[in-house]
Amino acid sequence: xxxxxxxxxxxxxxxxxxxxxxxxxxxxxxxxxxxxxxxxxxxxxxxxxxxxxxxxxxxxxxxxxxxxxxxxxxxxxxxxxxxxxxxxxxxxxxxxxxxxxxxxxxxxxxxxxxxxxxxxxxxxxxxxxxxxxxxxxxxxxxxxxxxxxxxxxxxxxxxxxxxxxxxx
Length: 168
Known about the structure:
The chain has helices at 5-16, 23-41, 44-48, 53-65, 71-78, 82-94, 116-136, 142-163, and strands at 98-102, 110-114. By secondary structure, it is mainly alpha-helical. A two-stranded antiparallel sheet has the order 1-2. Helix 5 (71-78) packs across helix 6. The longest helix is centred in the last third of the chain and has 22 residues, at 142-163. The protein is elongated. 14% of the residues are buried.
């Protein structure tokens, strides 16, 4: 097996400073590199449908909640900034995928829901996206995927608790 890029970086650091504990770099570096490569792949089914990952995340949040959501709730559900949500909602609304309803008592409050077109798009795209993601992970056997998923879940719980990124 050939070394990954992180192993090369670690070897270079050890050559410069043999006493350096590169353990954290080895793990976080690999997580970051995997994330960067996955982002570069740009989610082929989503791209083919004219959507970004961020837009699809908003549509998915609305579909799985199956109720109207406010822009603030969508920001929390998708770990996005309010400005990013506003921009994405504008694009999705112009595309006929999302509809906005104002609160009758407070016109400043907006409720968002999928249109029938938006719901149909998510229902069609999600299986395609999952198949794409499955193919991206096809180099790992089922046991390795389960182990990695569990370990990353444990790390995520720790980080959310420690770094303040916890949901709800």
